[in-house]
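User: I'm preparing a small set of examples for a lab meeting where we compare how different chains pack in three dimensions. I only have the primary sequence for this one, and I'd like the structure in token form so I can line it up with the others. Please keep the answer compact; I'll paste it straight into my notes.
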Amino acid sequence: MKILKISGWAVLIILIISQFTRPDKNNAGDVAFESFLAETKPPQEVKEILFSSCFNCHSDHTVYPWYNAITPINYWLNDNILDGKEDLNFSQWTNYSTAKKDDKLAEIMKAVEEKEMPITSYTWMHQEADLGHDQIREIIYWATQLRFEYSLKPNTQ
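Assistant: Understood. Below is the structure token output for the 157-residue chain.
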């Protein structure tokens, strides 16, 4: 019983001390996705979907929820953000070649159509990010139009 009590106190002390360590925040400000929005010109409905369902994990700017103040949750969130930005970073959109932009748009279309994005762990706490059929259709329509525009451009970068 004494070992259990000592172990409990040790875990509590470790949790308290760990609250003083945090990963760096992903916070480049709103400028992080302005060039993407300027280039792709999404309609207002699509822009709202991007803000509520995509940009937190797929850009250089995250609006953090209250529970990000809790270690180790903040490390788990940070890992999700880093993984998301590795797959697609809207803040780096202008650095992508035309062919890569087309590929990313195709991936977006597939991911939303198959309900792989946004990920379930994100929509648990952000129910507004869960895409309905009309929102999915809007994203696919916008991405299809954009892919057509990119197909008319030479492959740059």
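A couple of notes for your slides: The chain has a mean pLDDT of 85. Residues 133-151 form the longest helix (19 residues).

User: Perfect, thanks.
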